[in-house]
Specification:
Distance between the termini: 43 Å
Shape: globular
CATH superfamily of the largest domain: Dihydrodipicolinate Reductase, domain 2
Helix content: 25-40%
CATH class of the largest domain: Alpha Beta
Number of domains: 2
Order of helices and strands: EHEHEHEHEHEHHEHHEEEEEEEHH
Number of helices: 11
CATH architecture of the largest domain: 2-Layer Sandwich
Number of strands: 14
Length: 343
């Protein structure tokens, strides 16, 4: 019998994941779970899903082999802990946890898990992002990296749990910025000896008060130094709107070349010693959900470790943690190293 998938959480993102999974694997056995039995049943009924559990505990005790954690991050720690104890495969919606301490606490169980554990970081698998990385890899004749500038603008009005300080203890960089941190870390890794341990110092700044109703912070600028000599900047905001796309572009500056691109994956232009190259939008699977699911399913079917490893995600979270510590202390901070790389 094929592996079954149970979605813990009945929100919009669960619906998107379910639709993606069904496109790839139409005969997949699917269940849903909520803390409210009626909500689970109402969510499942129009989707033709038979099993709708009225508690996460009931779902975790079920015969479904794979749990997709699609709840607010405050609940992730206990759900992941129980799923690991039950030997379940795990696809965990980002951000993986509410704090680096939670991540470190579960690290031994996470890395010792024989089932597959992966974070649902769809942007990492998005076609436009993969093309950006391929172009930079092929353009190494552009010389040393000098500056990576990644900009995410867009006014947002958080609702539901995202507007609740108890559910959002850190802010927008934690909830939405992890996508952009993954992009920055992945692009920067091209010139590094390690894909997961290359940030040596972090400084961060932001307004004293949010520009929107986002709890704690909605706008943060992070400056980082990398082992290769690269300097990076991430400007992430839920309070500042996009205004003029051509001049809101992100960029990578090298000795003999440059790459300019829109962070949302709309356009790009590369300049190198051999000439210029336009990057058109990726219309199919623009957000990377399908590519991410195909990768996860392949790993579950083959019992293999995901290419997007827990070490990658820990390094991303260490960057995030350093940014918040640097912003609060108004000092330069050294990120915590990924545990597996500590001697």
């Amino acid at each position: 019998m094929s592996v079954g998938f149970c979605f813990l959480g009945c929100g919009k993102i669960s619906l998107r994941h379910i639709r993606t999974l069904r496109r790839i694997r139409p005969d997949a056995r699917i269940a849903v779970a909520s803390r409210d039995a009626r909500r689970a049943q109402e969510f499942a009924r129009p989707l033709g899903i038979k099993d709708a559990f009225g508690s996460y505990e009931e779902a975790l005790r079920s015969a479904y082999e794979t749990m997709i954690v699609v709840t607010p991050p405050r609940s992730h720690f206990e759900l992941v802990k129980e799923a690991l104890a039950g030997g379940k495969h795990l696809l965990i919606e980002k951000p993986i946890f509410n704090s680096l301490d939670e991540f470190a606490s579960l690290w031994p169980a996470l890395i010792q898990s024989r089932p597959v554990v992966m974070v649902a970081e769809n942007v990492h698998f998005a076609p436009f992002h993969r093309r950006l990385k391929a172009i930079l890899k092929d353009g190494r004749d552009c010389g040393r990296p000098l500056y990576l500038d990644l900009i995410r603008l867009g006014a947002s009005t958080p609702t539901g749990w995202r507007a609740d300080p108890a559910e959002m203890p850190l802010g927008a960089l934690h909830e939405g910025g992890v996508h952009w941190i993954r992009r920055l870390m992945d692009l920067a890794s091209i010139w590094e000896d390690s894909e997961t341990d290359h940030v040596v110092a972090v400084t961060a700044f932001g307004p004293d008060k949010p520009l929107s109703n986002t709890p704690n912070e909605d706008t943060t600028m992070v400056l980082a130094r990398h082992q290769s000599g690269l300097t990076s900047r991430l400007f992430h905001s839920w309070g500042v709107p996009w205004r003029f796309i051509p001049f809101d572009s992100s960029k990578v500056i090298m000795e003999r070349g440059a790459l300019y691109f829109d962070g949302r994956g709309i356009y790009g232009r590369f300049y190198g010693p051999a000439g210029k190259q336009w990057l058109a939008p990726s219309l199919r699977d623009r957000t990377g959900f399908e590519a991410m699911w195909r990768h996860f399913l392949g790993r579950v079917d083959g019992a293999a470790a995901p290419a997007l490893s827990l070490q990658h995600i820990f390094a991303d979270f260490a960057y995030l943690d350093a940014a918040y510590r640097a912003r609060q202390s108004r000092t330069t901070v050294v990120p915590v190293r990924p545990p597996l790389l500590v001697a």
